[in-house]
Amino acid sequence: MPKRKKNKKIFTKKRLIIASIVVLLILTIGYLINIQVSFLVRDELHVELTPTYSRTATENNGTVLLNFTIKNNNFWFCNSHCSLSLYDPYTRKYIFKDNEKTMKSNTEAELNIPIKLNVKGTGQRLFYLEAECNNVRGGLCVTKESIVARSALAVVDYTLTASEQRKVPELKDKLSIYADAMNNVEALIANNKNILNDINGSIFDVSKVSIDKVEQLKEELVIAQTTWKSELYEEIKVNSIEELNSIVENQKSTNEELLSKVGLYNSIIETIDNIQIENITDVDIAEEIEVISATLQNVRYPNVERIYSRILHLSNISKKLIEENNRKRQLLEQMTIEYIDANTILINKLSRLFNSTGNTCSDIKIIDAKLNRNVTHSVSGEVISGFKHSLQDENATVEIEKDKVIINGTINVTNVWNYSLSDFYQLLTFDDSRTDELVSFHCTNKTNNISVNIVDNKPIIISNATSAVEQVAFDSNLAKCCIAGQCNTCSMEKVPYPTLLLHGHLMNKDNPIEQSLSSFAKMQKKLSIEKDMINGGQLDLQRTQLDGYWTGMSEPIVFRASYYYLTYYDLEFSTALARKKESIETYAIRLRELIDIVKTHTGAEKVNIVAHSMGGLVAREYLLLFGENNVENLILVGSPNNGVKGRVMGLCDTFGAEKECLEMSEGSIFLKKLNQFTPKSTNVVMIYGTGCSLDGEDGDGVVTVANAKLEYARNIQINGTCDDYFGVGLHSDMLNPEKHSEVYETIAELLQ
Q: Do 390 and 422 lie in a common domain?
């Protein structure tokens, strides 16, 4: 009996041991199954990289230290491995890499990367920190070692060194003064060249303006300008301004001399043109020609010989004419005219005839004939008696001079006109030889009968147009923003539209938001490296109170952003809380805040949106609620525009957020209302997948083709397969450029 009791106790104890082992096995198996399920439905690795945006400043030859913190959050039995690299988008090279970062579960590590700048002037450079982490397979950690990617943007502003800050203002003043003098002398040289060009071949044989020295100084100044623009201030040397000022004065003198010569020449041509005669008989014209001749002899322009020879010929004729005129006057003065009235008439008559261009010879010959016929004797006494008789005063005193009659001391010629011309002829006495000499000389000398044509010489007209001279200036150098091998002036004018990458529905509501945010990580990286878009990393809502713009670059910036975050402001700081069980309308309101933040800190007028899955419904709801003014392009990838159903709806109800799943269900009130709205100005593109069976219909494994297409959008089909456990892989794989490059290329083309 005791033995049976003992055996029974042993049996009971064995049963307890076996039961315990069985329970333990069941628990272990359950735990293992739970682990397997967890790896399937949960985010097996969560990586935090902070800060996602930073901005520091240093001198252009200084060193800046970029500080980051990386933290992993995974299963306690999993270690993680991270590859860290720092990318320089200006040189398009990686300047730092650490591929050996191994971290235990739930640990964090500090990363400090020194960046030595060797740049000039002032400006801005960007650096992208990229982290690619995965769990390490082993033991209970049955991970697929999927890569989780994170990125951060570091902005470095650089300024002049302390030495340059002291030197540059003074250097700029000296260079600007020198440049002004150079621009002045070049304008003078150009003006003088214009004058020489206008007068070339006309009258001057002036040597060309010597500008060899100016060209040398200009070349040195242009080199200084290039060096200035390159901001190599220590290499710039400024020439003495005195030498250039001397050249300026010389060019001014040359200009005045040229204009003076041209003015004198034009004055001569104008005088010659005003003569316009064929036979020179006028004494006044002859005397004017003599003045011109004397002027030309003093100037003696080499190319004026043709004009000068003609003027000299005219001058010879003019001299003879003047001599003849003087001789005629002498003859008149020598003539003896006995009767004052006749004397006066004849002198005036002959003087007028001798100085006229009319019938001089014929008039004088008529008078000569009358003189020779009527002059017979001296009648001086009779003339005086005749005056007294006409005055009825025999006691009057009458004096007869050359050209007047003086009666009783008073000049009086009035009474002379009581005599006719024929009576005067009969009362005259002339020296016949003098009269004959006068007539013979005047009417037989033909030296003045030479034709001269001088109308083919024209005045010189100096053009008012000035030659274009490239101005040299030394403006203050503005900050340069450098990316993709080029440096351009930092500017917020005409900013290219930034792009927001919006994730889709979080499959498991208990997973962290970063799981969804990482869906666009590879595409964002590829856009930055291949298309030179700025990798803005994840939009950090807790740092949006930073003053000013994020960058001054001319390239578009791309952010990953989440509408799951609710932000609020406390004093000067922003705090973001995860709220991922709200309605799509609520998410659209949060999207509005994201768009406003991006516009404010980039200066852009609009944004582009690339939205995956449910993110597309959030973006469409935003357009419905707030209009299209802020969105240029809306690119939807795998969005359930007409809802989800069947097996996918069952998974959504099991793991997803209730409100989201309800509104995304096929035929929901939310979708009916949303689909009544058609955007008018925003360009909408819908990229949908085919190749995966979904409850007997074709689609991407989550959304059927019929429920993806939009009537008003440009619909683009992507072919693929679903090889994953749940048969939904194509839906997310479309965002992976390594698997579906056509999606990436389409999006890149639309964004550029």
A: yes
Break the chain down into helix, strand, coil percent, rounded to 5. 45, 20, 35
Residues 312 and 349 occupy one common structural domain: no
Say if residue 180 is in the same domain as residue 260.
yes
Distance CA 44, CA 109 (A): 19
Contact 589, 625 (CB under 8 A): yes
Q: How far is CA 348 from CA 342, 353, 691, in A?
A: 10, 9, 129
Radius of gyration over alpha carbons of the chain, in Å? Answer: 56
Asked if residues 54 and 152 have their Cβ atoms less than 8 Å apart, the reply is yes
- pLDDT at position 626, please? 96
User: In terms of domains, do 381 and 419 share one?
Assistant: yes
The SS3 assignment for 97 reads strand
Task: Encode pLDDT of 75-134 as tens digits.
Answer: 778 888 999 999 999 999 999 999 888 888 889 899 999 999 989 999 999 999 999 988
- The closest of 514, 495, 492, 516 to 505, measured between CA atoms, is 516
The token pair at 232 is: 């190599």
**In terms of domains, do 374 and 301 share one?**
no
Q: Which helix (H) or strand (E) holds 373?
A: helix 360-374
Residue 206 lies in a domain: yes
DSSP 450: -
Counted domains in the chain: 2
Quote the CA–CA distance of 125 and 87 in Å, as a whole number. Answer: 11
- Rounded to an integer, the average pLDDT of 8-34 is 69
**Whether 129 contacts 155, CB under 8 Å:** no
Whether 633 shows a pLDDT value over 90: the answer reads yes
Q: Residue 32: which pLDDT band, with cuts at 50, 70 and 90?
A: low
Q: How many other C-beta atoms are found inside a 10 Å radius of the C-beta of residue 589?
A: 17
